[in-house]
Design a protein that fits this description.
Helix content: 25-40%
Structural class: alpha/beta
Shape: globular
Radius of gyration: 22 Å
Largest sheet: 9 strands, mixed
Number of strands: 20
Distance between the termini: 41 Å
Length: 395
């Protein structure tokens, strides 16, 4: 593709303005390594894309270390317990008193992303929204990224290295051509945002024979719910009273307070799928966040893997750019993939804990017994509780 406009060479071209790309770019910029961030969406879309915000202690520590935590320290709040509800009763786990004894920090992802944009610009970084990357040439001594802006004008960005933080369907993953291991978990959620106060300060996991339901507090007036459903469900076809009936059936147990109801203001289907790319780096191109791995939302690991991976890659890039030592870059894939694997293993454990086996599965009775055994272990065994807490808040 012939470019109509080229830009000066940067040390690092970052594709994607999500938590991975913006954390990486901020760390580089704060250490005097210049970068340019390219994002296909508009700034308004990026700043207003509502996502979950359960930040693990390691993620919070990374953001604080690099001066990126003012917003979450001011407006975030600690979350230290969750509850499982099933036919066997209620299990409340104060996970900050178990395992490594650490809580989550709840801070909506769109607020974190807005903070990272503001900080990156304050540090002198270059951010281009409405810029769609079409091709990455990483075969020579430099990376050449070919893109188009919102007017369809062709652009070319050149860098010593490129960081692909543009998601599971971005150009970076295709350009790297790693092996992608994919699994479809056979589970679909109806993701709901309700204009209703939470029923509890805790996350509630409803383990029910009809399917999983989840309650995730957001604000005093907004609550996120998840409802397991058939994959061909039309999100807009369900009446609100049907939705609340399903939620009450799966989330309420004897003695639990009623669910406050209100208008459903957002609906979407979420198909639980997971993907792992191997390797996640080659030559001068490296993947971070969803570009490196798509993980099911069952254990809230996605953004946390992105932040941890961003710091690891930033350190390796700093060595390469400032000291001419690319040994850490060559180790990036083998060092980060074990973290990714561990997060996926716990996510899979949570999927098996929360969702009943399909009635058509030949081993459904046995698998149902194993699911009940896991719940019993969480209720009665400190060893199992520590295992849960350690993995729930960690990478």
């Amino acid at each position: 593709m012939r470019s109509n406009e080229s830009y000066p060479t940067s040390a690092v071209v970052v594709l994607g303005a999500g938590p991975a790309g913006l954390t990486l770019a901020n760390i580089l910029q704060s250490h005097g390594v210049d970068s340019v961030v390219l994002e296909r969406r508009s700034e308004t879309q990026v700043r207003n894309s509502a996502r979950a915000g359960y930040l693990a202690p390691d993620s919070v520590a990374i953001l604080r270390e690099h001066g990126l935590a003012d917003g979450l320290d001011t407006h975030g709040h600690e979350h230290d317990r969750c509850e499982f509800r099933s036919a066997a009763g209620r299990i409340e786990l104060h996970y900050s008193r178990l395992g490594s004894g650490r809580p989550h920090t709840v801070y909506p992802q769109q607020h974190l992303v807005s903070d990272l944009i503001t900080q990156y610009r304050a540090r002198g970084g270059t951010l281009r929204f409405d810029t769609t990357v079409e091709h990455i040439d990483h075969t020579g001594e430099h990376i050449h990224v070919h893109a188009r802006d919102h007017t369809a004008r062709a652009l070319r960005f050149t860098g010593s290295y490129a960081a692909g933080c543009d998601g599971s369907r971005g150009v970076s993953r295709t350009a790297l051509a790693g092996t992608v291991t994919t699994t479809d978990h056979g589970v679909t959620w109806l993701a709901l945002l309700a204009q209703a106060p939470p029923a509890s300060a805790s996350v509630i996991y409803g383990v029910h024979a009809d399917g999983f339901a989840g309650h995730m507090p957001r604000t005093a007036e907004i609550t996120r719910y998840y409802l397991q459903c058939d994959p061909d469900t039309d999100p807009d076809a369900l009446a609100e009273d049907q939705i609340w009936t399903h939620l009450r059936t799966r989330l309420q147990t004897p003695g639990s307070p009623p669910l406050p109801t209100g208008p459903i203001i957002e609906r979407a289907l979420v198909r639980l799928r997971s993907e792992i790319v191997d390797p996640i780096g080659s030559g001068r191109l490296f993947l971070v966040g969803d570009a490196a791995t798509s993980i099911s939302p069952s254990a809230a690991k996605g953004a946390n893997l992105a932040i941890v991976g961003a710091q690891l890659l930033a350190r390796a890039l700093l060595h390469a750019v400032r000291e001419g030592d690319d040994s850490a870059l060559r180790r990036y894939s083998q060092e980060h993939l074990p973290r990714i694997h561990r997060a996926h293993e716990f996510s899979q454990w949570m999927i098996e804990l929360l969702h009943p086996p399909a009635a058509t599965h030949p081993d459904a009775p046995y698998l149902g017994t194993m699911q009940r055994a896991r719940l019993h272990n969480l209720a009665t065994s400190r060893v199992h509780q520590d295992f849960f807490a350690q993995n729930y808040v960690g990478i």
